[in-house]
Amino acid sequence: MTEINIAVVPVAGLGTRLLPATKSQPKEMLPVGRKPVVQYVVEELTRVGMKRLLFVTGPGKASIENHFDLNGELIQNLRETGKEELLSELAFERAPVQYFYTRQRQLLGLGHAVLCAEPYVGDQPFVVALGDSIIGINASSDIVRRMTEAFGEKNADVIVAFEQVPMSEIHNYGVAKPRTDGDVFQIDDVIEKPSAVEAPSNLAIAARYVFAPKIFDAIKSTKPGKGGEIQLTDAIRLIIRNGGKVYGMKLVGAERRFDIGNFDSYFRAFVEFALADEKHGAALREFVKQLIH
Ligand code: UTP
């Protein structure tokens, strides 16, 4: 079984739903508690054994590249000014992983962003992790490991992570039409943003995928949909229609998807992470209690 150790992290989107915060900084660099969103994503991926991370970037995203660089000057400054205790905050710079970057030169949607990874990924299976979504509080999830294992066991073409969401929110998501039951289930279809009445389940796509390289041909055969964007879900549907094996995997237990794509869920994520902070959480809980009563 080939080990899957490449993850593609699309971060090229404009983040218009978070304007003005995202006018001159990427949404993937917004802090949630102490860290920028994309650092949680990278920590999740490196913890489950990803060795090569390819960011699909675009204009205005240079701060993401800078964030993962080794910053010798900053380290020296901390040492020289007696702030050695802060060096541990930069330990993530030494994660055993290699970073690669490519540009999505036209913003033609998530499907197109994934296609930009083809020259790098070549003919091997790979993970896609959206750079604006954290899985589990403090990125504690190992769903990507479970997905890559299931990918081999099932001889799958695609595995998609799904979260059960309230039906009142289902219209915001790509939704599974499952063929089978259980935490890992085969999928008959994925419906993009259905109404609660049309939705075939309460299972919403949750920002993590594993793909066989055939996804690239499927994306190339996918016509632009809404807003001229090439939808990744349309390419997945094409694979299903051509008889491919597409599975869903549910987030389980305490695993939840924190979507930093809109203010409502960004605020909630920030508050939840800050309240859970080891150092500042207790005082913040007191403050919030006073504020509310
Ligand atoms: P979204 O659709 O939420 O991102 O994509 P967006 O286009 O930035 O959002 P709005 O609607 O303008 O607010 C989810 C992830 O896919 C990336 C985004 O950067 C984000 O991490 N993405 C999206 C791309 O890399 N390229 C695209 O063309 C679209």
Give the key terms:
single chain, alpha/beta, two-stranded antiparallel ribbon, binds uridine 5'-triphosphate
Question: What does this protein look like?
Answer:
- With 293 residues, this protein is of the alpha/beta class.
- It has a single domain (6-157, 206-292), classed as Spore Coat Polysaccharide Biosynthesis Protein SpsA, Chain A.
- It contains 10 helices and 13 strands.
- The protein has helices at 37-47, 62-67, 72-80, 110-115, 118-121, 143-153, 214-220, 232-241, 263-275, 281-292, and strands spanning 6-10, 31-32, 35-36, 52-57, 98-103, 126-129, 133-135, 158-164, 174-178, 184-192, 203-211, 246-250, 257-259.
- The strands form 3 sheets. It has a 9-stranded mixed β-sheet with strand order 5-4-1-6-11-8-12-10-9. The chain has a two-stranded antiparallel sheet with strand order 2-3. A two-stranded antiparallel ribbon has the order 7-13.
- Helix 7 (214-220) packs across helix 8 (232-241).
- The protein is globular, with a radius of gyration of 19 Å.
- Bound molecules: uridine 5'-triphosphate.
Structural class: alpha/beta
The number of helical runs is 10
Task: Specify the biggest β-sheet.
Answer: 9 strands, mixed
CATH class: Alpha Beta
Mean pLDDT: 95
The ligands bound in this entry are: uridine 5'-triphosphate
Count of separate structural domains: 1
CATH topology tier name: Spore Coat Polysaccharide Biosynthesis Protein SpsA, Chain A
Tell me the distance between the termini.
Answer: 57 Å
User: What is the name of the CATH architecture?
Assistant: Alpha-Beta Complex
Helix content: 25-40%
* Multimerization state: single chain
- The CATH superfamily name is Spore Coat Polysaccharide Biosynthesis Protein SpsA, Chain A
User: What is the ordering of alpha helices and beta strands?
Assistant: EEEHEHHEHHEEHEEEEHHEEHH
Low-confidence stretches: none
What order do the strands of the largest sheet run in, or round the barrel if closed? 5-4-1-6-11-8-12-10-9
Strand content: 15-25%
Question: Quick one: overall form?
Answer: globular
